[in-house]
Write a structure and sequence with these properties.
single chain, alpha/beta, seven-stranded mixed β-sheet, 15 strands, 15 helices, Aspartate Aminotransferase, domain 2
């Protein structure tokens, strides 16, 4: 029914993943399995909605409609049993800008901001780039599973007088979908210590079959007063290029302060076609998304089985979601710099290098598995051949 096995040619479309080699300084023959977009065509309903909007032939300044807000509210209610009021929803062109806006609105230079590495690089970039103080509560790898260090979490909050915590839920890159107990424990500490939580939940829809993601305020109602939830359809439905995100802020005082910052920075409006695509995705896209995540989960199992059978010195960390796998390649014995050179020039693979997610990621890589199985087979074959030549 869906074309997940179809190899679609993306070269020549301005794709960051497929056309960015020369501009970003990577070998032209390196197979790209890095940046977090899918190699799958979007749901047909999104394409049809965009075509219908394009047929109007006027693309002026555009506001979100009643049906747009209804689609978001319906999605949150159906998927997460979270009743979201319309007035809670603010539009911003992307989650990364949204996090930067939060730093400007609620902290000042020198304030302490906490993150949990290894984590999405724009988190630390936002903190340091805005002259805030970066505080780390590293995740702990126990066997092949990443866990929270809650004792360190609270100690860092107290010792550094942390003002804001950027939560990655589900966690990128390690793929943890946090349990209710883990989320509640972090929330309790932040509430007790008066820490604002900015939750990047852009991967909320990408839990594997049988795994449930919990929006923080839906799980801990008290978090309505101290949490900003950053969501977007971009990862879920492969529409990142349409630059539309929805920031959910239940508390009216936080919401007005955040909205004022967005207006000040000119980031309160989003892409006209992105509005149409988002509405179509949340209204009609559930069957496609469920099928896509089942395919991705099968791809993840394929990678685990392949490495276990052919390259047992390489490990896949346990994951409950995302279309990204966090691979432990420390068994090759390389430094992080040697590993990057080996992968690019010997295995001819362009992956996200772990060190970009923080020092805690050295020796690891992030592998994008939202692609046809044949492409994964090619990538793993290239990796195996390169390792066997060592």
């Amino acid at each position: 029914m869906y074309k997940f096995d179809t190899l679609i040619e993306r070269r020549g479309t301005g794709s960051v993943k497929w056309d960015g080699h020369a501009q970003l300084g990577f070998p032209a023959d390196a197979l790209p399995l890095w940046v977090a977009d899918m190699d799958f065509p979007v749901p047909a309903e999104i394409t049809e909605a965009i075509k219908k909007r394009i047929a109007h032939e006027v693309y002026g300044y555009t506001l979100a409609t009643d049906s747009y807000y209804d689609s978001i509210r319906g999605w949150m209610e159906r998927r997460y049993s979270w009743p979201v009021a319309r007035e809670w929803i603010l539009t911003v062109p992307g989650v990364v800008p949204a996090i930067n806006l939060a730093l400007h609105a609620f902290t000042k230079p020198g304030d302490a901001v906490l993150i949990q590495p290894p984590v999405y690089p724009p988190f630390s970039n936002a903190v340091l780039g805005n002259d805030r103080r970066l505080i780390k509560n590293p995740l702990v790898l126990v066997g092949d599973r990443y866990c929270l260090d809650l004792e360190d979490f609270e100690a860092k909050v107290v010792e550094n007088r942390v003002r804001l915590f950027v939560l990655c839920s589900p966690h990128n890159p390690v793929g943890r979908v946090w349990s209710p107990e883990e989320l509640s424990a972090m929330a309790e500490i932040c509430l007790r210590r008066h820490v604002l939580i900015v939750a990047d939940e852009i991967h909320q829809d990408l839990a594997f079959p049988g795994v449930r993601h919990y929006p923080l305020p839906a799980l801990v109602p008290a978090c309505n007063e101290n949490t900003i939830i950053c969501t977007a359809p971009s990862k879920s439905f492969n529409i990142a290029g349409l630059q539309t995100s929805n920031i959910i802020v239940p508390d009216p005082l936080l919401r007005e302060k955040y909205a004022a910052a967005a207006r000040c920075w000119g980031m309160s409006k989003v892409n006209a076609l992105g509005l149409v695509a988002c509405e179509a995705a949340y209204t009609y896209g559930a069957p496609w998304l469920d099928a896509a995540m089942a395919y991705v989960a099968a791809n993840g199992n394929f990678v685990r089985e392949y490495l276990g059978a052919n390259l047992p010195q390489l490990k896949v960390t346990e994951s409950q979601g995302l279309f990204l796998l966090w691979l432990d390649l420390r068994g090759l014995g390389f430094t992080a710099e040697e590993l990057e050179t080996f992968l690019l020039h010997r295995a001819r693979l362009w992956l996200n290098q772990g060190y970009t997610f923080g020092e805690e990621g050295r020796g690891f890589v992030r592998l994008n598995i939202a692609c046809p199985r044949a492409r994964l087979e090619q990538a793993l074959g290239q990796l195996e051949a390169a390792v066997n030549q060592l």
